[in-house]
Automatic annotation (TrEMBL):
This is Endonuclease NucS. Its EC number is 3.1.-.-. It comes from the Bacteria. InterPro entries: Endonuclease_NucS, NucS_C, NucS_N, NucS_N_sf, tRNA_endonuc-like_dom_sf.
Amino acid sequence: MRLVIARCSVDYTGRLNAHLPLATRVLMHKGDGSLLVHSDGGSYKPLNWMSPPCRLDVVAPSEELAETGVTEMWKVTHQKTGDALTVHIYEVLHDSKHDLGIDPGLIKDGVEADLQRLLSEQVDLIAEGAKLVRREYPTAIGPVDLLVRDAGGMPIAVEVKRRGDIDGVEQLTRYLDLLGRDPLLSGIQGVFAAQEIKPQARVLARDRGIRCLTLDYDEMKGIDSGAPRLF
């Protein structure tokens, strides 16, 4: 990656035209060929950019541009659309290159697999005295996240989401319909568990006879048991 801090102006031409007047900005030329133009503000969003596949050519300015103070021109052309991003550089304040290597990607904390694993280890949150039968219990349309039995032996199917919405309730409803046809799972109940459950999902779940369980991920990570939060 090449990072350049420069006084520059930027022009984008193609499906739309845009102009950034002369100012000090960060030019980020990444290993994938993309160029991003950043200011000291706007958080992560660049002022303008060119996404790959594209090509960067550094050219000398014309005499007319040189007289205005332009020392160098960057022309980044998209190889499919022909759109062009032209950077007129007046002064370079910093120029460095860095090899960042291969990025392992974002690892999210609190994804559904983590919630499912934690809840399988803390099934008392579902029902006091409950015991885990199996994670990823199979049905004809896919596995339900958890199958447990309460202290009295009643089967409970649990669907786990980070954010619970109507689609999740509908999904659990279909699982319950199929599982309820098994004589060994007669009378099966449903629990919809999520870190956050939308009000519409709660209403639908209540209408379907499904209980809702709000999961506190931080608390589940730090303790072996906790108080159930059923609504």
